[in-house]
């Protein structure tokens, strides 16, 4: 057992019961593992199917829970009924996590669980993420943050533990593919999700973002994969497939994928001389 893992396990000392907010990613997977290792049946993993979570993420959360052995509950609600979220301003993530917190608290009370934890870690603090403020305001705790875990720490330990999610690319809700100010609709989310599936299947990439700019698709992949679009007729096929599902035009982002890309786009647009 590594010292870092021991620190995480020790974080749960004195906790009688815990609800783990399990997203389907590697971060919350490690927290779920630690909670179950320390508290056994007094820990429960909860995944929120709020209609902007991709099916891939939901399926991964189910798989992770099975690997760990932790009880898994899926709660369902529709974020698209929340106008604060749908209008998609800079605080969209805050409204999302504020509503999620409310649902998690309700579930924790239902199962008499004393603590609620998530997978936030120190690398998450390097980007504009108002959702973290909403979670902490509502009493959601972040063990990985408290014991100074970064993404690299998390992946290394998950690999040693044999969790298959250890090398899974980072992901986020489908609404994050829409620029601020563009309303979040079920139609847009559906074509984004389908578009990403198509690109992954055709190109074999694991990290893909299809950004939706008022119906125009901009594809982001890891920089070393960009050139593969221009081999054979790959790009032609992708353009044809994405136009079939409703995109008016398709382009490849020449800079490649970067977490928080739309935050950078916003900053550049709002500070043109910066």
What's this entry about, in short?
With 274 residues, the protein is of the alpha/beta class. 45% of the residues lie in helices and 13% in strands.
Tell me what you see in this structure.
With 274 residues, the protein is of the alpha/beta class. The chain has two domains: 3-167, Rossmann fold (3-Layer(aba) Sandwich); 174-270. The chain contains eleven helices and seven strands. The chain has helices spanning 3-11, 26-39, 55-68, 83-86, 92-110, 130-137, 143-146, 151-161, 186-203, 234-244, 261-270; strands at 18-21, 43-49, 71-76, 115-117, 208-213, 216-221, 249-252. The strands form two sheets. Strands 3-2-1-4 form a four-stranded parallel beta sheet, with helices on both faces. The chain has a three-stranded mixed beta sheet with strand order 5-6-7. Strand 5 (208-213) and strand 6 form a beta hairpin.
């Amino acid at each position: 057992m590594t010292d870092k893992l021991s620190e995480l396990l020790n974080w749960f000392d004195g906790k009688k019961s815990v609800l783990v907010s399990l997203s389907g990613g590697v971060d919350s997977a490690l927290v779920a593992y630690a909670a179950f290792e320390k508290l056994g049946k007094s820990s429960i993993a909860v995944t929120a199917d709020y209609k902007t979570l991709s099916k891939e993420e939901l399926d991964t959360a189910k798989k992770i829970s099975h690997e760990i052995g932790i009880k898994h509950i899926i709660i369902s609600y529709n974020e698209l009924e929340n106008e604060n979220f749908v209008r998609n301003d800079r605080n969209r993530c805050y409204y999302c996590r504020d509503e999620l917190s409310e649902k998690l608290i309700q579930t924790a009370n239902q199962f008499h669980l004393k603590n609620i934890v998530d997978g936030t870690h120190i690398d998450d603090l390097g980007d504009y993420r108002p959702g973290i403020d909403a979670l902490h305001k509502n009493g959601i705790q972040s063990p990985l943050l408290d014991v100074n875990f970064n993404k690299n720490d998390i992946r290394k330990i998950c690999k040693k533990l044999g969790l298959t999610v250890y090398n899974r690319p980072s992901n986020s809700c489908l609404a994050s593919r829409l620029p601020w100010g563009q309303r979040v609709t079920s139609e847009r989310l559906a074509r984004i999700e389908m578009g990403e599936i198509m690109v992954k299947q055709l190109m074999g990439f694991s990290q893909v973002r299809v950004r939706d700019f008022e119906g125009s698709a901009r594809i982001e992949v890891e920089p070393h994969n960009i050139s593969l679009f221009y081999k054979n007729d790959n790009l032609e096929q992708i353009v044809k497939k994405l136009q079939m599902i409703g995109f008016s035009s398709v382009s490849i982002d020449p800079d490649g994928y970067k977490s928080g890309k739309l935050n950078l786009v916003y900053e550049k647009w709002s500070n043109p001389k910066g």
